[in-house]
Write a structure and sequence with these properties.
Helices cover 23% and strands 35% of the residues. A hairpin with a 5-residue loop joins strand 1 and strand 2.
């Protein structure tokens, strides 16, 4: 289980995934079912320590292990 954090609201969603990137892909899919955001793209911080995505005005992040 990998938890992804909404940096704006503090909400977390957990996904059964083997990698943080896979968890972010599942998050994007799930959020797009509710509200399609064609600009939602998974990004990596410069250090590579975290993955993040802006979706419909909210920023979601996960530690990239």
């Amino acid at each position: 289980m990998i938890n992804v954090l909404n940096l704006d609201t503090g909400a977390t969603w957990g996904f059964l995934a083997e990698t943080p990137y896979e968890a972010m892909e599942k998050l994007r899919y799930t959020l797009n079912l509710q509200h399609e955001d064609p600009n939602a793209k998974i990004n990596k911080t410069e250090s590579g320590r975290c993955l993040y995505m802006d979706h419909s005005g909210n920023t979601w992040a996960v530690v990239n292990k």
